[in-house]
Automatic annotation (TrEMBL):
This is 6-phospho-beta-glucosidase. It comes from Leuconostoc fallax. The active site is at 384 (nucleophile). Belongs to the glycosyl hydrolase 1 family. Transmembrane segments: none annotated. The keyword Hydrolase applies. GO terms for molecular function: beta-glucosidase activity. It comes from the Bacteria. SUPFAM superfamilies: (Trans)glycosidases. Coiled coil: none annotated. Keywords: Glycosidase, Hydrolase. GO terms for biological process: carbohydrate catabolic process. Pfam families: Glyco_hydro_1.
Length: 485
């Protein structure tokens, strides 16, 4: 007889924690030899429901390079984690973090991307961060590229559009793999790699002046170079530190058909395939047939070196991670007035939305976990999930029950997915401490369990204040996800 059993709780070694990015927290943009990054030339958005991270042209870049302040470029100042890392990590430890996901700023190690020697002061900073994490037994999960490549590579090669950037990146990855051998069990290559189809912020390639067809060509070519660089990084890590694991990272955007009409179902399937294309390449090691057709029908030609396909096949990632904030609705005749969710999909009438128009769909997380587990049969890791909100500091307190409700609902669905049989490694919510928003460069869009006293103009004491959600998450971790009240 076949005995049916299923897990009813999170595994004992489940990795609870939080996630940040260097360009959103570190600050110290002109300290200790750091070079300017692509994130630090993106201006703050004028409208919080309109993203600004790809609005970079040759003209705006010239203005940004001439500006020696952080007034229009809040990611230059972050929340000064560079000088507060000990305090912040101690607060993470107080919550009981098992893992902390952060990024190493490439431009802090190689300020110009191709420097003759790595920047010793930059490496020393991450030495200190890792030592502080080790003091509290918090495992590091490090992202190698989180929208912060050296701007010098944009100027020289137009970012990832130039194949030369592969060599520069893999020199960076080899440097940090060797430096932190035995100290970092988990690595990620490119953060939300699929957002490279949106342009500059992820590819470092300036293409706003081009036609849509030309943009598609340069973006997918840039992404191919990242696929190759990811495979080479996987090869490097496996040779340098065989015990460590390396994963892909996707902005997961599960899409539902707008109606049961087969035309809409097919449109949604195509949209989902375009989202999963990136993990298909990084996990399966080859370009899927459906994208070959898409390239042919859109006049896109991917230039490959002779060894590229063999390299992709030989070095797939060890696990798959993804961010999850929303789901989308797709139909074949999508109209502009029905768009929502960062204008990348239609609104769902059954869902509520955040102050920034991002629709909230906890059950969609269970759906996508099952779909990705069925597709890849590789361990999964939810490395971003959170609620950006307009928190209010009142009498020294932030009562953020709305954030607790949001996270509880998503954690409940992760538990259900585990019961479904999904192999889920961990959960690093975004972001455990208030930081500069990726999409709009605001400070007002707060995600954290820890309030940071800083406004959108950079005014404030930078004092760290625990919100109500701080104690709640500490309880969640202490009970391994059993007490979510």
């Amino acid at each position: 007889m076949y005995n049916v059993t299923f897990p009813k709780s999170f595994p004992k070694d489940f990795l609870w924690g939080g996630a940040t990015a260097a360009n959103q927290v570190e600050g110290a943009w002109r300290i200790d030899g750091k070079g300017l990054s692509t994130a630090e030339v993106v201006k703050k958005a004028d409208d919080r429901r309109q993203v600004s991270m790809s609005d970079v042209t040759a003209e705006t870049l010239k203005v940004a390079l001439a500006d020696t302040t952080d007034v229009a470029y809040p990611k230059r100042r972050g929340i000064d984690f560079y000088h507060h890392y000990q305090e912040d990590i101690a607060l993470f430890a107080e919550m009981g973090f098992k893992v902390y996901r952060f990024s190493i700023a490439w431009s802090r190690i190689f300020p110009n991307g191709e420097d003759a020697q790595p920047n010793a002061a930059g490496l020393a900073f991450y030495d200190r961060v890792l030592a502080e994490l080790a003091k509290y037994n918090i495992q590091p999960l490090i992202t190698l590229s989180h929208y912060e490549m050296p701007i010098a590579l944009t100027q020289k090669y137009n970012g990832w559009a130039g194949r030369e950037t592969i060599t520069a990146f893999n020199r960076f990855t080899e440097t940090v793999f060797q430096r932190y051998q035995g100290k970092v069990p988990y690595w990620l290559t490119f953060n939300e790699i699929n957002t490279g189809t949106w342009g500059f912020h992820e590819t470092g390639a300036i293409d706003k002046h081009l036609s849509e067809k030309e943009q598609l060509q340069i973006r997918y070519q840039s992404l191919h170079h990242q696929f190759v660089a990811s495979a080479r990084a996987t090869q490097q890590l496996h040779e340098i530190d065989p015990q460590a694991k390396i994963g892909a990272m996707l902005a997961r955007m599960q899409t539902y058909p707008g109606t049961p009409n087969p035309i809409d179902v097919r449109a949604a399937q195509l949209e989902d395939q375009k989202n999963l294309f990136f993990t298909d390449v990084q996990a399966r090691g080859e370009y899927p047939e459906y994208m070959n057709r898409y390239f042919a029908e859109n006049g896109i030609t991917i230039k490959m070196a002779d060894e590229d396909q063999a390299l992709l096949a030989a070095y797939p990632v060890d696990f798959i991670s993804f961010s999850y904030y929303m789901t989308n609705v797709t139909q074949h005749d999508q109209s502009a007035d029905s768009m929502g969710n960062m204008v990348v999909g239609g609104r769902n009438p059954y869902l509520e939305e955040s102050d920034w128009g991002w629709q909230i769909d906890p059950i969609g997380l269970r759906i996508t976990l099952n779909a990705m587990w069925d597709r890849y049969r590789k361990p999964l890791f939810v490395v971003e999930n959170g609620l950006g909100a307009l928190d209010k500091l009142e009498n020294g307190h932030v009562h953020d029950q709305y954030r607790i409700d949001y996270l509880r609902q998503h954690i409940e669905q992760m538990k259900e997915a585990i019961a479904d049989g999904v192999h889920l490694m961990g959960y690093t919510m975004w972001g455990p401490i208030d930081l500069i928003s990726f999409s709009t460069s605001e400070m007002s869009k707060r995600y954290g369990f820890i309030y940071v006293d800083q406004d959108d103009d950079g005014n404030g004491t930078l004092k760290r204040i625990k919100k109500d959600s701080f104690d709640w998450y500490r309880k969640v971790i202490a009970t391994n996800g059993e007490d979510l009240v």
